[in-house]
Amino acid sequence: MAQASIRNQIHLLINGVEHTVRGDEAFLPLAQYLRYHAHLPGTKVVCAEGDCGACTSLVARWNQDSWSSFQTLNSCIAPVYLFDLASVVTVEGLAMEEELSEVQIKMREFHGGQCGYCTPGMVCALSGLAESCSQKKTPITEKKARNHLTGNLCRCTGYEPILNSALHMDLKKWRPLAERYLLPAEQTKFQKLFADDISLEAPNKKAYLPKFLSEALEIKAQNPQVRIVSGATDLGVLHNKGKSFLDQVLVVNRIPDMGKMESTEKGLWVGAKVSLTEFENFAEESHPELSRLMRIFASPQIKNQGTLLGNVLNGSPIGDSIPGLLALNAEVHLLSKKGARVVPLTSFYKAYKSFDLLPEEIATGILIPHLQDSWRFKFYKVSLRKDLDISAVTFAAALRMDDDNILEARIALGGVGPTVVRLADIEKDLTGSKFSEQLFKTAGKNARKHIKPISDLRATEDYRLNVAENLFHKCFVELREERAVCL
User: How many CA atoms lie less than 13 Å away from 296 in the CB half-sphere?
Assistant: First the structure.
């Protein structure tokens, strides 16, 4: 078998034009490359944190033998090296020759463009909505429009004309981006380029993009300090703020096994590069409460790029997915040249940002066990805003119940200490007890003794203590209502 060639550049399409990117430019955030090297200034950068959506672009990726659908993402926090063999469309690429797209026409007609600075991101977000609804042959509703715009902040505070623009779009007039930009000629070329190995270098910077897990393990063994990257929605923010740099990275996105997501006998397997959007859709049947939580996890732009395993490995004490996964007894699967390890999530977090993870190990995925129908789940996120906000307190309860009794209990809280925690003592108090309001009120009061929240810009210590206590009662009330419906 012929040895694959090694290339030191990234190939991507931007509005249908091929770009070859190497050196320092490959390590830039995509938004900076678009503005200053591709000369497409319609993509704006404001927060550089993935919060405001002014940098929204649309991306489809070549996956070995086919294209993915176009999805929105925040280009301000995503390094260029993540977009090898991708097709990127910016606001400049939406118009067809001299004619504006249907989204742009409706934004003009209903005065959706106000100061204009955030408008390109709004237009790209709504184009993602039009592309999705056109592909699925489903109508645009106000709920869908609001969901697709949760990642876009309007600094003029006038969302009504933007929503009106969305609701009056005629999908019959929308020409799908896939028909315009995912053409056979590019597919043939990208299919050949996919076979190459990629190693990018610039002064004091290096990025490895292996195709096989064995190659990744070898690289990690030789360079244990290298950062593992997939979506970079957390790491990209730290890089932009100068707190942690993405200059020595190992990108796992080209490794097919990392993208696996399947229901096995043991549980739901979620590979390292499975996006939050993919997980939300896949988990809807087997873990509906966890899927529901994903809907308010973040904006579509973040969920399309970020990964579930990345949120787990970031290890934030207010990480939205972690309490639910702890309550479900999920386990992290680790691999190195020395062998494989399986670490229960309950023992993975040792201290703030300290994990049971060896320098030479790569996390390949997370397994979420299946639970019987006798289990009931409640996952809560408390934040100042419903959408696109960092949590103050998170709560998860998994309870195995019969008609009147709690047979087994698992309780996890986030935002109440240096790590997300399981409350073992509270679990013991609940287990074997009769399901009652007083039981949960007492559990909430007792929980205050086992948590140590701090005061910060999101919430005070007292607020977090009160919320944690109240969430136990909220859990009881919702479970009682659900049980009443079933009886």
Answer: 16
